[in-house]
Design goal:
Elements: H1 2-5, H2 13-30, H3 32-40, E1 57-58, H4 61-64, E2 76-79, E3 90-93, H5 96-111, E4 118-122, H6 124-127, H7 133-145, E5 148-151, H8 155-164, E6 169-173, H9 175-185, E7 192-196, H10 209-220, E8 226-229, E9 238-240, E10 245-247, E11 252-257, E12 272-278, E13 287-296, E14 302-307
Parallel strand pairs: 1-13, 4-5, 4-6, 6-7, 7-8
Antiparallel strand pairs: 2-3, 8-9, 9-10, 10-14, 11-12, 12-13, 13-14
Helix pairs in contact: 2-3, 9-10
């Protein structure tokens, strides 16, 4: 149990490398779907000597297998949002305490102490279903902020409450709801960070992110739009302060691989499939091959460009098709 929390003490590439190899060896032996996948592709875990040699588990297996290696029953199983006919992903978590530590530490790294903020969450489709990790995170952060709250479709009450709030504010919203709010009311927001967490969910047209952010900037009277990148299959989040460039916490690393060859890494700056090492996925699988397309850069940041063709539409990200 204590080893799971050592990821928050990572401060160098060397420490990340050592922690990732330790997690890999454990999960290669104890996470059955990952162990079977490694065997199918002919990977001998004992021969892996660096993170560059670690294979990534296709994210689709979270829909079809129990990706879990806890030593007791999970405290919760988070699920992805899914449109009719789609199978949601399932992410069992042994420890909610670890999840809370991860999202709190990531938030603090990018925005400082939560109590300095009020958090207003406009997440209607997530609130209407069970098992959302995003709703759980927002609920705990609202509690840590001490002000703010959840809103479904009562936009006028949201605008009034924010206008009366003297604290700096974060308006965290699913993309289509933020678009509706900007289009219908165009409130002039002051002292407010607007943060989209993606998800048109078929309610609105999918737009290039730059175009969509311009619409929100004009509608809310703000200079830039922040973004949160997360998904049910991950424990951690990345944040963008604008420009579609995301930064990660110290225990999360993103690389790019060839879209058509899952075993071919690409150099920095190349457009490809995003693969993620999330060491907070301690009791599932920390090495995930996503269906997202983007680029990575020398400072560890990454950019989202779209989705791999024919991939399921993910509920937590606004992505350009």
């Amino acid at each position: 149990m204590k080893e799971a929390y050592t990821i928050f003490d990572i401060h160098s590439e060397e420490e990340f490398e050592a922690a990732a190899l330790s997690v890999f060896r454990r999960q290669a032996a104890t996470c059955a779907p990952y162990r079977d996948y490694l065997a199918l592709i002919g990977c001998d875990p004992a021969a892996v000597r660096s993170t560059a040699e670690i294979p990534y588990l296709p994210i689709e297996l979270f829909k079809t297998h129990e990706v879990y290696c806890g030593d007791r029953a999970p405290e919760i199983v988070f699920t992805s949002s899914a449109t009719t006919g789609m199978t949601p992903s399932r992410h069992p978590m042994q420890s909610l305490a670890l999840y809370e530590r991860a999202f709190t530490a990531a938030f603090e790294a990018f925005y400082g102490a939560p109590e300095k903020w009020s958090l207003y969450a406009l997440l209607p489709n997530y609130l209407r279903r069970k098992g959302s990790s995003l709703v759980y995170m927002a609920d705990r952060l609202i509690g840590a902020c001490g002000s703010g709250g959840f809103y479904l479709d009562d936009y006028e009450r949201l605008i009034d409450d924010m206008a009366r709030d003297p604290k700096p504010k974060i308006l965290l919203g699913v993309s289509y709801a933020l678009w509706d709010l900007a289009e219908q009311y165009a409130p002039r927001l002051t002292d407010t960070v607007v943060m989209e967490t993606g998800g048109m969910k078929g309610y609105r047209e999918e737009l290039p992110k730059e175009q969509f952010h311009r619409i929100l900037c004009e509608g809310f009277g703000v200079e830039k739009i922040h973004s949160e990148y997360g998904m049910a299959e991950l424990t951690s989040q990345a944040y963008s302060r604008g420009g579609n460039i995301f930064f990660t916490p110290r225990w999360l690393k993103v690389t790019t691989f060839d879209i058509n060859d899952p075993f071919c890494p690409l150099p920095l700056g190349s457009r490809g499939r995003l693969n993620i090492i999330d060491l907070a996925n301690y009791w599932s699988c920390a090495f995930i091959s996503t269906q997202d397309v983007g680029r990575t850069f020398t400072d560890g940041s990454f950019e989202i460009n779209g989705r791999i063709g024919h991939a399921d539409i993910r509920g937590c990200n606004l992505l350009v098709q």
